[in-house]
Structures are given as structure tokens and as C-alpha cells.
Amino acid sequence: MIETRLWHPVAIADELQDKPLPVRLLSEELVLWRDAAGRVQAWDDRCPHRGARLSLGRLTPCAEGMALECPYHGWRFASGGQCVHVPALPAFVPPATHRARVHGAREAHGLLWVRLDEMDDTGDEGAGVADTAVPNSQLPSFAAEDDARLRKLTCGPYDVETSAPRVVENFLDMAHFGFVHEGWLGARDMAAIDDYRVERTPHGLRASGCKAWQPQSTAASTGPAQVEYTYEVTAPYAAQLTKVPDPTSVGIAGYSESIGLFICPLEPERCRVWFRLALGDFDRADDELRRFQDEIFLQDRPVLESQRPKRLPLDPHAELHTAADRASSFYRRFLRDSGITFGVCR
After folding, report:
1. C-beta of residue 58 within 8 angstroms of C-beta of residue 72
2. Phi-psi region for residue 229, left (φ > 0), alpha (ψ -120 to 50) or beta?
3. 97 Cβ contact list (under 8 Å, min separation 6)
4. Is the peptide bond before 157 cis (omega within 30 degrees of 0)?
């Protein structure tokens, strides 16, 4: 399954402190923890001895720096997964086969990321296939992350009873603004969508020249405005947008805003969503900015959860399409061409 070769967000980075953190990804139960150097470890949440949940255990110092101790028999596993101590046999030296199943783990965009491809015995990630050999297997990008002029903030998580691709498609869709987000991102009497451009990119697609009239385009809005959007799909379950409102509608000179959408596919029909904001507003409190993002997405959620089927149909004849759905149609073809199977139906 190609999805196991992709990087997926599983938790906010600050959630992982001094104890194990259980997470779920692609129907798999995992445990995260930080080693003595602060590096993220991602393992199967199952002790290879008798199958107990390692996330119920604790972190303990060891000669190798730090170990995760199983709650059942106290077996200790060091960074990289090797068992280093069996309390019932203090003199026993565990062989290389006595190890936890380890996955690739990274920290980026304020989130913790996991790739289910196993690591080899040296601790190098991606023992099966190198990043450059698998389409879309690099960590999803967020272009605004390194822009020091913009403030960064993570919103979420939001748990949604639908597939990850349904959420990405909704993110790309401007035609719903006047109905789902009436009075906020749109108005039903100004719902017309002008023509816009869509092109394929190495990691997905780019839609530019997208325009919408919005009563309140951002938390900083002082009035309605025409807003121009640029969308990019950066991985099968990730996307970003940049929006630039009419300067007269925002009381901040040169204001622009980028939003990254990062989704953890928990199950084929259930996912967890985060948004990463990068914006030129340094005055409003974090809670105020999060409340605005909460309001918008919580308007989307009941509609997303009502869609049938929950898995995104990739058969071009399964649902109806118009020119306003051009980005969505490109996205569906991209998933089909990439061999994605989790969260879609063909």
C-alpha cells in the first residue's frame, strides 16, 4: 500500500513531552516518545514479548540514554527499538531480534509526522524504498513556514467522520462558500465562480486566479472584500492556500495569509485534521485566531460527515461535475494516478 510510504501528521509537536503518547494512523496503533536527545520515536504500540500496549509504560533512563519500559514485564527498549533489559533475567543480553517495530518519525510545521515504512537495523528510516523513488513520499511542504515575517499558529485537531480525501476536496472548493459559510466566507447571492487555472505539479496540483467575494475573509477583516486564492495540493492528504484580500478590507498593510491543511487518515472513513496558519496579524491573541478557524471548519464538518459515500469516488462518472469543480476533478485524477487506495473508492 503506497500510503505506508507517505509521511502523515499524527499529533501536535508540543503534545509529546515526558511520557509515551498513543496515536493512530492508517488503522494502526502507534506510540510516540522522545529519546534523551529529544528526537521523536514512533513504534508499533505493541510489545513484541506479549503484546501489551507500550503506551501504558513509562520512560526510564538507561545506559543508552532513555528507554521505553513495557508496563507488563518491564522490558526496556532503547532509541531505535532494541531491547536492552529484561528484568526477569538481569544477566541476559537481548539479541538483535528482540526489538520493537520502529517507523520513520519527524517533526515539522508544528506537528509530529510518521511514515509506516520500517527502519533498518542501523536506525535509518525508509529501509524499503528511498524518498526519491516513491512519488509524493517527501514530507508535505508548507511554503510559508520559513517566512519570518509571518506569525505561525496551529489549529486543531478536528476529528471528522469522513475520509481524508473528502476533507482535501472541500478545502479546494470555493462554490460552497456562500452556502456553508454564508456571512463569513461568502454570500448566496454572490456565489458565481469565475474561471480559474489548474495545473499539475510534481506533488499534486496548483489552482490560481481563484476569486471570491467574502463578508469576512479573515479574523482581521474590517469589511467585505474580493479575495484572491491560490491553492496547492502538496501530498495526497495535504494542501495549502494563500489568500490576499483587498487591502481596504484589512487594517494591516500588505496583509496576506497562508493556511496549511494536514490530515491524519485514521481509518478509511475517519480522519483527524490540523490547520497551520501563517499570517501577518501579530496583534490578535492566539485564542481569537483559533476561534475564527474553529468557526469556519465546524461549519464544514456536518456537511462533510453527511456526504455519501464517505470515501471519495475516483470513478469520473460516480458524481456530477461542472467547470466550477475543476480543482476537485484534477485532485481526483491525481489520487487515481498516484495509486491511492485509503479513503477512496474506484
Report:
1. no
2. beta
3. none
4. yes
Q: What is the C-alpha to C-alpha distance for residues 26 and 211, in angstroms, rounded to an integer? A: 35
| pLDDT for position 136 | 53
Distance CA 199, CA 209 (A): 12
Q: What pLDDT is recorded for position 130? A: 37
Q: Phi, psi (5° rounding) for residue 190?
A: -135, 50
pLDDT at 206: 98
End-to-end CA distance of the chain: 15
Residue 17 main-chain phi, psi, to 5 deg? -115, -110
- Phi, psi of 39, deg, nearest 5: -75, 145
Outline where DSSP puts E strands in the chain.
Answer: 8-12, 21-25, 28-34, 40-44, 58-62, 65-69, 76-78, 83-85, 102-108, 111-118, 151-160, 197-201, 204-214, 225-235, 238-245, 257-267, 270-279, 312-313, 344-345
* pLDDT at residue 226, as a whole number: 87
Task: Decide if 144 contacts 278 (C-beta within 8 A).
Answer: yes
Distance CA 125, CA 210 (A): 39
- Identify the residue whose cell numbers are 483559533: 290
Nearest CA to 25 out of 266, 272, 343 is that of 266
The Cα–Cα gap between 5 and 149 comes to 34
Q: What pLDDT does 129 receive?
A: 35
Per-residue buried b or exposed e for 311-344, using 16+ beta carbons within 10 Å of the residue's own CB: bbebeeeeeeeeebbbbbbbbbebbeebebebbb
The parts of the chain modelled with pLDDT lower than 70 are 118-137, 251
| Three-class DSSP category at 343 | coil
CA 254, CA 60: separation in Å to the nearest integer? 50
The residues, ordered by sequence, that sit 6+ positions from 75 with a Cβ below 8 Å of its Cβ are 47, 49, 69, 83, 85, 86, 87
